[in-house]
Amino acid sequence: MSHQSCMVRHFQYFADLSESEIELLSTLEKSPEQLKSGDALWREGGRAEEMAVLSKGWAYSSYVLEDGSRMILDIFMPGDVIGLREYALDAHQSTIEAITDCTFCRFPHCHLDDVFDKSGRLTSIFFAISGIQQSMLVERMVNLGRRNAQSKLAHFLCETRSRLSKTNDGALNEFRLPLSQQMLADLMGLTPVHVSRVFSSLREQSLVYRDRHQVNIPDIDRLMAFSDFREGYLRMQPKGPDA
């Protein structure tokens, strides 16, 4: 898969795109920039004048709390647009770091303005994607505040699998999850030791098998029922006559 195909495949999940719309999207994926695992794309508090497309690899957004602990908010995958929530803000609200070696394509806000001017359908899709990102944050808050540790992890794995299926031609029962125990802990408000225990418990129930960074879900319907996962919040459709 080429670097420039990821974003297009993501958008084509929502609608069939014309050649001119594909070309318009491709203007946002020029000047690729390579970052190593652990490198920052931008940091919280920096001036928000740009967004980025993640063309290859995995990344995350985070806040550092007053006590020095880290809270992870978003996990980004190939094709994701980063910085949509900050479109109307002056400063970045979180730090973006690479989980794996990544390829990012930065673009200034004015390039997105150009897309909005030229395509009502792409504008609708951007709004749908922004809505999905906001809904994922709401689910993250529910995870932190209301679900037990097993349900937190199971729900996140269901969500990850569902997101990956958008650009991987259908359902997946096995996928790579390149997050460390510490990252998973910071995502779910647990300790790394607790995360390890939860994986063991899910394995004992034949719900999830993990071998290092490979995750296998033998019965996705069973895991979805176990975690009360409903994927509607990941399947929003664009509104409007051009969508």
From TrEMBL:
GO molecular function annotation: DNA binding; DNA-binding transcription factor activity
CDD domains reported in the protein's UniProt record: CAP_ED
Cellular compartments per GO CC: cytosol
Keyword vocabulary terms for this entry: DNA-binding, Transcription, Transcription regulation
Classification via SMART domains: cNMP (SM00100), HTH_CRP (SM00419)
SUPFAM superfamilies: cAMP-binding domain-like (SSF51206), Winged helix' DNA-binding domain (SSF46785)
Residue ranges constituting the HTH crp-type domain according to the UniProt record: 147-221
Residue ranges constituting the Cyclic nucleotide-binding domain according to the UniProt record: 13-83
Entry protein name: Transcriptional activatory protein AadR
Annotated source species: Kushneria phyllosphaerae
GN (gene name): aadR_2
